[in-house]
Design a protein that fits this description.
115 residues; mainly beta; 6-stranded mixed β-sheet; 4-stranded antiparallel β-sheet
Length: 115
Amino acid sequence: QVQFVESGGGLVQPGGSLRLSCAASGIIFGMYAMAWYRQAPGKERELVASITTSGSSTDYADSVKGRFTISRDNARNTVYLQMNSLKPEDTAVYYCKRRFTNDSWGQGTQVTVSS
């Protein structure tokens, strides 16, 4: 059974940082590109960042370029999202899944940026 478990969210002040983690199971993790998505209240889910199988190439939404960094540890079946210089508009539930596969969504992790 394919499963993605996100963690690391929380409440942070503007300008702060958080590191999200996503543990994958039920797949040969190193064979798949991975991605982080987010869904803000009242908005559609959007792609935030993606990473290739080896981690050698990454891509980001324009809104997070220069602030967020995606990385992965294939030995731990885990993908990370380091988020710096957080803004209130980054408030959302963050999800991870395989980039090009129609996986079911996990429970996500809530990120709230507020003073």
